[in-house]
Design a protein that fits this description.
Blueprint: H1 7-44
């Protein structure tokens, strides 16, 4: 480990970690963020993108389920 002990060893690791962050990690994060922003702008400016123009048709059942007990009221059971 280069013969360093104690506080100087810790300081050298802090310096190395800081350099690694600013030389490798931060640039790659910035590049990813910039690519995501470019992709978002490309999607937003695409004139041929699909836009939903109809409202969805609601499910006529009381429970909203596709199958099961249809329109059965608990008041009629009493």
């Amino acid at each position: 480990m280069g013969g360093l002990r104690g506080g100087s060893n810790l300081a050298s690791w802090v310096v190395a970690g800081t350099l690694a962050y600013f030389l490798w990690v931060k640039p790659s994060q910035d590049l990813k963020r910039e690519q995501q922003e470019r992709a978002a702008l490309a999607v937003a400016s695409d004139p041929n993108r699909y836009i939903e123009k109809r409202k969805p048709i609601p499910d006529p059942q009381e429970t909203g389920l596709i199958y099961g007990n249809k329109n059965r009221n608990s008041k009629t059971d009493k």
